[in-house]
Amino acid sequence: MFRLLARVTLVAAALFMAPAAWAQIVPFEVRGGVSIGGVTDPGTSLFDPDRIAEANVELLYSLPGIGDLGLLGEVRPHLGGTLSFSGGEHLVYAGLSWTFRPPVLPVFGEASLGGAWQTASDPDAPQRFGCPALGRAAATLGVDVLPGASIMATVSHVSDFGACGTPDNGRTDALLRVGIRF
Questions:
Q1: If you ran DSSP here, which 8-state letter would residue 169 be given?
Q2: pLDDT value at 120 more than 80
Q3: Where does the secretion signal sit in this chain (predicted)?
Q4: Which of 45, 66, 68, 124 lies 20 to 30 Å (CA to CA) from residue 52?
């Protein structure tokens, strides 16, 4: 757990220490919120407030000339992490997100694909995955509540696809997040 927190802190510090000129060239968005882990596990209830036991933070960057697809949306790299407070897996992930905003309406949809690295903080707990390297996919629906600020609901799924010698027992999370775009 300490190693994961140290790594996430180092990455966040490196990202925030970028010079002002770089920040003008590469605008970014910061998202954060709460997560309910394992919503598709047997015997779980999505609407049980006691299951909110994870925090999530994510950074998305706009790359000039690369990510703008005009009317088709915007492709941005992302880097994020989910910290479990209930002894579950902690996740660090990265990949690409495609955001589509219809003209005039203050709503957006997003699809993300990438990879993740997981660690379980409790070695005595049953392990969900056969290895730490995972694939990740996510879908988001959001509403722009102010210029540069949004509220969104996300469904995220990580899995090792059975590639590590154990049956595939993927994890699906439901997230409620707030985003600030700079």
A1: -
A2: no
A3: 1-23
A4: 124
Closest CA to 169 of 38, 47, 75: 38
Three-class DSSP category at 104: coil
Q: What was the pLDDT predicted at 36? A: 87
Name the residue with tokens 């056969």. Answer: 130
What is the chain's Cα-based Rg?
17
End-to-end Cα, the chain, rounded Å? 31
Tokens of 112: 């993300």
All structural domains of the chain: 2-181 (2.40.160.20)
Which DSSP string do the residues of 50-71 spell out, in sequence order? Answer: GGEEEEEEEEEE--TTTSB-GG
pLDDT tens track for 16-41: 444 333 344 458 999 999 998 888 87
Q: Provide the whole-model pTM.
A: 0.79
Q: Which residue has the tokens 């509220």?
A: 151
